[in-house]
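Quick one: structure for this chain?
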Amino acid sequence: MERELREFLHLKKPSKAAIQKALPGLQQWGPSKVTLVLRKLGTEHRGHLLLPLMDTMRQSQLELDVFHYSAAAAAAASETARWHLPLHLLGDARRQGIRPNEYTYCSTMSAPWYFVIETVRQMQDFRLTNQVSCSSAISAFGQAGEWRFAIDALGDAAEHRLGANAFSLSAAMASCDNLHQWRRALEALETLQSADLRLDTDSDDFAPCCDLAISACAKGSNWQGALEMLTKMKGCSMRTGDVTYSAAITACSNTEEWRVAMALCGELMMCHLEPGIWCTASAHACDKVGAWLQALSIFEWVSDRTEVDGALAGSVLSSLSSSKGASCALELLRCLGRQWQPAVPEVEVEAGSAGVLCHRPGIVVVNKASGESTESLLLRCSKSFGIQLRLASRLDAPTSGVLPLACGESAGKYLQAQFAGRLVRKDYICLCAGPSLGEMHSSAVISQPLLTTGQDGINSRTIVSKIGRPAKTAYVVQARYWHSAPPVEEQELILLRVRPLTGRTHQIRVHLASIGRPILGDMVYGTPAVGHACFRLFLHCAKLRLFDFTGSTFTAEAPLPA
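Got it. Here's what it folds into:
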């Protein structure tokens, strides 16, 4: 069976004769074998074989039932390029006299959100909607960033008592939270609380919804709403924890009410709450206002109870550097280096092997090629060096250049502390198009807040927004090129040396596009003409300066690719 199935899966243009040759004895197949093969088509991404196979099965007198169509619909839904297939299969089932059930419809919820809209409509027509389908649909809308559909689906579920629960509410609120639609998230919470749904809003199942509400308030700088929600949770004896308190502290630190954040932090210390991300959030609040003494107190409190992580150490380093000067921050970094270095494994690395530019104990710096993801490079180097390497920063797949890797957990924390503490200096080379930025060696700083939306690095998108996080990018004009004499402004190409002063997603690309100078080869943030002007993104990390475990600086450079 395995050999026959492998031959079948490699069919490019299946016909009835080819299917019967690859899978002999179709007439003797049982229901379980049919379901197994249909599911296999989904895992192997062979959706083009689904319809020909099912047609051949029917012609071979095989009786197909609702479970077979459920397996086929689930397999088809796994391929976004063939999003129409699940809808076709559902229609085919009805034409064969088979009525799809709630499991058939729910199995298609992983399809693109625009297909889910039609699925939900059909389920409502057949009165098949339940808690699972409600939550699945809302999650599908939320993951696609379609928060309006998610909220509408939740409202319909509440109005018609179609099985809305705390999990579907969490899905809807998460879609709003990821896109900084904090008012919508709070409205969703009020919708379900006001509906007569026998929903136990005091239960621990409801706690994640409240956490999301506080997080939404944090992104909207609504610190009063965050504290009000926290008070309600305490009054209902609802479970509160690390995520709850860190979100509340962040809400206060995003405004001028950092003293409220410190008061909440002090309260948690007095209650002997276990150290967690709420400590990092508190230290970050101190960093924003230069309260280095309070940040250091939090650092010492955590150090007395557990190991300090890189994020917390970075917030304290940043606070010290901005308030007391770089020398104080470096002194703390050296102390951390002495504390963490004994746990760093020894790795023998030859410069030049696997793209290695240079290395120090616990730190390997490599030259990433354009087109390779940071994660795949990490796996390849880990296998090559025989050790589990860790990331402290990343480069976008189309960006090439210098990338530091940490050897083990302790080295990872040490690098993370440097990046979070803004002690690392990175210089990029890029070629952009647009009006002149001045004569050679002209310099400036782009200061525009950036907001990143999306679930992951593939689907995420960054825009300039007033509600975004602060971001600064410095640049110097290295060279100017044009096609005509005298030069025409719109035709000028500008070679820049760029230094990001903060570390936001796609920061350099978005900042340059925001001033009308998109990078050549940027298909996301540039115009079509600029995007197709170069075979790759003309952005290269040329130089990196960081600190080894002794506190001494070292620099790695990667030449511009040919």
